[in-house]
Amino acid sequence: MTGLGPVPWPPAPIRTQRLLLRESEARDRTAFIELFASPDVHTYLGGPRARDELERAVPEVPGRRPGVFVVDAGGAMVGTVSLDRRDAERPGHVLPDAGEAELGYLLLPGAWGRGYAAEACTAVLDWFARVLPDEPVVLCTQTANARSMRLAQRLGFTEVERFEEFGAEQWFGVRSAATVSG
Ligand SMILES: CC(C)(COP(=O)(O)OP(=O)(O)OC[C@H]1O[C@@H](n2cnc3c(N)ncnc32)[C@H](O)[C@@H]1OP(=O)(O)O)[C@@H](O)C(=O)NCCC(=O)NCCS
After folding, report:
1. Model pLDDT for residues 63-112, shown as the tens digit of each residue
2. CB 23 within 8 A of CB 7
3. Residue 136 has what pLDDT?
């Protein structure tokens, strides 16, 4: 993964109806460790990392790079939404030179089932459509990850192809540059 490219970063924090999307801060470190150590969050993402290893390895301010938004609900981090450039070596592309903007989302299990991921991703996709209006956004998720599959469809991603990677069937979809929620 490389940087997002020529986008102003960090943008002003984005407010939605219930959430604030902002750059990470030192006070988010515990929530980042929770996120990386959670078996539920990593069921379809290769498994969690050991908490003691994370305590040593996670920097003072984790997730500080262009494209990573902390999802803040009521003053506390409940997850992240990110946009990264998709590696050319991986399967799944819609642009001739690869490097597509790829959406990722991770919420702490306590925040599932409230529509937070959809609300946060919609706002991030709208931000991206304003700063790089001609670019599609891609998304890759295991077909077994039912919550993620429902979210992808709710966000307006459509299937490009399915393939095997990391020992599982992956769903690869795209949201065209013209899809802006308003
Ligand atoms: C994928 C993930 C972000 C989805 O989270 P989620 O909370 O299910 O997704 P949404 O924000 O779209 O919430 C939708 C659910 O909230 C419910 N909901 C409750 N109140 C709501 C409200 N006010 N507005 C909208 N939806 C609401 C919806 O009915 C829906 O429930 P359903 O899926 O049972 O039908 C989450 O499961 C996760 O973090 N998983 C682990 C990480 C992962 O696998 N990421 C994929 C990487 S590619």
Report:
1. 999 999 999 999 999 999 999 999 999 999 999 999 999 999 999 999 99
2. no
3. 96
Residues with CB under 6 A from ligand 1: 41, 44-45, 104-107, 112-118, 141, 145, 147-148, 150-151, 154
Q: How far apart are the first and last CA of the chain?
A: 29
Q: Which CATH number fits domain 15-175: 3.40.640.10, 3.40.630.30, 3.30.450.40, 3.40.190.10?
A: 3.40.630.30
Q: Which of 21, 81, 114 to mutate to test the pocket of ligand 1 (most atoms within 8 A of CB)?
A: 114
Bridge partner residues of 14 (DSSP): 21
Residue 2 has pLDDT above 80, yes or no: no
Q: Where are the domains of the chain?
A: 15-175
- Rounded to whole angstroms, how far apart are CA atoms 120 and 63? 17
pLDDT band with cut points at 50, 70 and 90 for residue 1: very low
Give CA–CA dist 85/181, Å, rounded.
Answer: 22
Please report which helix (H) or strand (E) contains residue 163, including its range. Answer: strand 158-165
Nearest CA among 168, 7, 182, 165 for reference residue 85: 7
